Amino acid sequence: MSMEPKKIVIICFIILLSASAFAQSESNSTPKKIEFGTEIQAYPVGYITTITSNIFIKENLAIHLRIGGNFADREDFSGRNDDEKASGFGGSVGLVKYFPYRKGNFIAGAHIDGWNMWTDWKDGVKTSNPTQGTTYNFVVQPWINGGYLYDISKKLNVGLTAGFGREINVITSGEKVGEGWIGSLSLIANFSFR
């Protein structure tokens, strides 16, 4: 079963808008805090760069939204092919809980990513009949993570988190490519507008 990339983007956009609408529906007379920022997430065979937003639904609880690019060079670690290089775009939605400590916050969160990925693969490279091709995948990645955000000022914080999750290829068009358990480290910077 395959789905057109345009439909996948529309579905992801609807999910992100729904999460934003939910956060706004939780409003009271006090304006909610909103942060915008950037995140670089490194994992063993690649990295993810995103722009982010934290929409606080309570003082210590926020909806976390991301949109950006995912880039991987699995080489022969995928277990499916001799070489895989992948790139794509997508986003995520999740919840982050804040635990104030000294000049910042410990954080714990969970989110789910959706990535449109195109993987260039090669197999049998050391044989007389090598094969190669490109596979499209819609990848779902549920994550849990935790770390610390340091408040540089009332408007700016930076931090480091560690995460653990799983890559799941839910839609595949072409040869099967790598998926599985994954760990990551993220560098984060957020700017508050309230």
Mind explaining what this structure looks like?
With 194 residues, this protein is mainly β. It has a single domain (5-192), classed as Beta Barrel (Porin), CATH 2.40.160.20. Helices cover 11% and strands 65% of the residues. The protein has one helix at 5-25; strands spanning 34-43, 46-58, 61-73, 83-100, 104-123, 131-151, 156-173, 180-192. Strands 1-2-3-4-5-6-7-8 form an 8-stranded antiparallel beta barrel. The longest helix has 21 residues, at 5-25. The radius of gyration is 19 Å and the shape is elongated. The mean pLDDT is 88.
Question: Which key features would you list for this structure?
Answer:
194 residues, mainly beta, Porin, eight-stranded antiparallel barrel, elongated
Helix content: 10-25%
Beta-strand share of residues: over 45%
Question: What structural class results from the helix and strand content?
Answer: mainly beta
Question: Secondary-structure element sequence?
Answer: HEEEEEEEE
Q: How many domains comprise the coordinates?
A: 1
Inertia-based shape: elongated
Spatial gap, N to C terminus: 45 Å
The overall average pLDDT, rounded, is 88
| Discrete helix count | 1
